[in-house]
Amino acid sequence: MTENPDRPAPRTVRVGLLGCGTVGGALTELVTGRCDDIAARTGVRLTVSRIAVRDARRPRQVQLADAVLTEDPASVVTADDVDVVVEVIGGIEPARTLITTALRSGKPVVSANKELLAHHGAELFELADAHGVDLLFEAAVAGGIPFVRPLRESLAGEDVTRVIGIINGTTNYILTKMTEEGWSYTEALAEAQALGYAEADPTADVGGFDAGAKAAIIAGIAFGVALSAEDVHHEGITEVSADDIATARRLGFQIKLLAVAERFDDNSVAVRVHPTMVPEEHPLASVRDSFNAVFVEGRAVGELMFYGRGAGGGPTASAVLGDVIDASVNLVQGSHASLGVFTPASLRPQSELPSAFYLAVEVADQPGVLATVAGVFGTNGVSIRSMEQVGADGDATARLVFITHAAREADVSATLIKLRSLDVVGSIDSVIRVLGDA
Amino acid sequence: MTENPDRPAPRTVRVGLLGCGTVGGALTELVTGRCDDIAARTGVRLTVSRIAVRDARRPRQVQLADAVLTEDPASVVTADDVDVVVEVIGGIEPARTLITTALRSGKPVVSANKELLAHHGAELFELADAHGVDLLFEAAVAGGIPFVRPLRESLAGEDVTRVIGIINGTTNYILTKMTEEGWSYTEALAEAQALGYAEADPTADVGGFDAGAKAAIIAGIAFGVALSAEDVHHEGITEVSADDIATARRLGFQIKLLAVAERFDDNSVAVRVHPTMVPEEHPLASVRDSFNAVFVEGRAVGELMFYGRGAGGGPTASAVLGDVIDASVNLVQGSHASLGVFTPASLRPQSELPSAFYLAVEVADQPGVLATVAGVFGTNGVSIRSMEQVGADGDATARLVFITHAAREADVSATLIKLRSLDVVGSIDSVIRVLGDA
């Protein structure tokens, strides 16, 4: 694209970068490669003026142009030649202090830091608003997928009732390989580690903590409430067996690690992360490998889904760059995007949430057992949608597989306690939630 | 959400509505139902002050609150008590004149009019820019799916190379029913008409014209070029047979009507709409029924997909409302979103475009025919990816099914002309493009 001669010369906006790892490096390259096109489109010419790194003498692949390298991040957030601060170092400190200083100095901030925003988002958003500057964080929620902006702006008038996300690429890769290649959890995790998708200590991913932090941010924006990662119930994928996956497929489901953020009619909200059986025909079922997707249900708009790469240098840098352009245009125009008011969240307790369940129960293979077991569901107010008996021919035990209608989690727990107490019940092998209507 | 007592009272923005059919009615209801929440979130209180309708005496289901009904749309676009104009009447005139007047009066405009924007978009965007006001059109491209805003803003720095859309719900419904229920084209069309998805004269949908208009708008924003619906090559779905669909499924494909907008390395662009075989594992293959989706390929971000309802009162009104809020916030802040510069498009001729093809050829069932036919592909520079012979046992003819690698369309045309001239070739029954890498 050529610049229009009638347009005024682009205003230069100088970016100060905190961190220059995979994402910071990719961002620096993107700014260098795309700044002419961005200037032609937006009237803003971006340049990276300062970069804070841990070791300024380490050789780098990335061409850092004329940027000043420093090992003192505090000098970047207050520098006169920095107009917009980008934070891609991650973790709570020093990121929190640095961002706070930048906002107080009237500098807009773009952050990819899900951990910080999930724990201290509401406080930082208020600070940004109070100082009339932007705090943007597209890359913190679903990597390269433009989701925060559509949710905040395009859907600003929409009555969003539920957001369901596959927002951890590592676990989606593991579950996909278990499903499509028949690998065990251990094999799939090892391959994810070999590919660099999973850390040596994979707990943050496989335990659902990473998805939980992102879900807290999503719920905050979607419902305009202040909540933190501690408010999210999470279960990981370590208990999902090859057998569960095989049974799920036979019944027409895929097992996915879903983050579910809901708002109920009384305006209470709940956010939870857990392995979930997703019907094959649901759009989330076809989200494979390390891809992410966020599914939104709204009263007027119906169903929406946003799909793409949730991690990686290029996709994450792309999301950061979109925010940097937005903050820069706002800076030049003297405006900023308000996040609105975050009211304290009224959290609905996990025990009161509605869930459909898949349950696999080992029972004695004798007459009357099914009636006994089914009776336990009924007396606890849990309605059975489907039941089948699998395997067990000629054996002394049979395996019963149930799918329930949506029931209160407390009622399902009571059912499980009662079932475990029965002599005819050997063990309860699987308890997995099933995605249903809101 | 309650309003923060520290916040100033919301500024009221008065909406003038042109048209009050399905979308206009749904929008009016949404504004009434959601204005408190919107005020709490954005500081802007929306109200519908004037509505232009064809017949002001017709009884209406929708509660129009205090809005003034008029049969004179020109009075709405210049009224002092209208701050933002919403155009949902469709068609070129009088919409074009009304929008032009509104923009010249300094009023931001939100339009859902794909036909107008596909033919006169560049001229109207320039006018809006010249008068420093917004012209927003989220609903004109993919109904309720937030796509224009993410593409314009979140991806403002991204090097987008290709956009592929399922952007006509009627044809996607018809193809889904042919695929999943085995219906004929005629049966599926009749059901689409019964459900109100298809018009009595379905040409605009099944001929690819509707998708072509939307694709022209998408390509303009994605690549920053000025082009119109006339620049789009389109083929409809009327030639797609039940047999094509069955063969596609057997080979691992779904047939979809795709709009494909591409930019090549020399910055030339091409936009085309045609039935396409989509690999089962591609995210677009699982977009079913009347749903729409837009798939984006960018150098940094990789692959993205945006999925949702492309039509209907609620979804379309939701997209219009998002734009109305955006325009209102900008109005209050004294800013506006620039669309940037649209340079004249350098269009790559259809004959020069790369496409992979699926071809079904009836041939005489005799030795040496395959070599002869394959030789024609080779001498015309078309490389064969796979071939199989189907049916024809004991018959005098055989059916050869080819899938080619990507080849120039001109070379494929030359291949077809030569094949038709051969004595051993009876007929060429199907010529369908296959989705491949860019």
- CATH-defined superfamily of the largest domain in chain A: NAD(P)-binding Rossmann-like Domain
Q: What is the domain tally of chain A?
A: 3
Protein chains sharing the most extensive interface: A-B, 68 and 68 residues
Portion of residues in beta strands of chain A equals 25-35%
Count of beta strands of chain A: 19
The helix content of chain A is 25-40%
Q: Tell me about the biggest sheet of chain A?
A: 11 strands, mixed
Tell me what the CATH architecture of the largest domain in chain A is.
3-Layer(aba) Sandwich
Low-confidence stretches of chain A at least 5 residues in length (pLDDT < 50)?
A: 1-5
Q: How large is the radius of gyration of chain A?
A: 25 Å
Structural class of chain A: alpha/beta
CATH-defined topology of the largest domain in chain A: Rossmann fold
Please state the oligomeric state of the protein chains shown.
homodimer
* CATH top-level class of the largest domain in chain A: Alpha Beta
Q: Taking all residues together, what is the mean pLDDT of chain A? A: 92
**Spatial gap, N to C terminus of chain A:** 46 Å
Assign an overall shape of chain A. elongated
Work out the helix count of chain A. Answer: 14
How would you describe the overall organization of this protein?
The structure is a homodimer of 438-residue chains. With 438 residues, the first copy, chain A, is α/β, with parallel strands linked by helices. The first copy, chain A, folds into 3 domains: 11-144 and 314-342, NAD(P)-binding Rossmann-like Domain (Rossmann fold, 3-Layer(aba) Sandwich), CATH 3.40.50; 148-308, Dihydrodipicolinate Reductase, domain 2 (2-Layer Sandwich), CATH 3.30.360.10; 351-434, ACT domain (Alpha-Beta Plaits). Helices cover 37% and strands 27% of the residues of chain A. Chain A contains 14 helices and 19 strands. Chain A has helices spanning 22-42, 73-78, 95-104, 114-130, 139-142, 148-154, 169-180, 185-194, 203-206, 209-223, 242-250, 313-333, 369-379, 409-421; strands spanning 11-18, 44-52, 68-70, 84-87, 109-111, 135-136, 160-166, 225-226, 233-234, 253-263, 269-279, 291-298, 302-309, 343-344, 354-364, 384-390, 397-404, 407-408, 425-434. In chain A, strands 7, 9, 10, 11, 12, 13, 15, 16, 17, 18 and 19 form an 11-stranded mixed β-sheet that branches. The longest helix of chain A is centred in the first third of the chain and has 21 residues, at 22-42. The radius of gyration of chain A is 25 Å and the shape is elongated. Chains A and B meet through helix 1, helix 6, strand 13 and helix 12 of A and helix 1, helix 6, strand 13 and helix 12 of B.
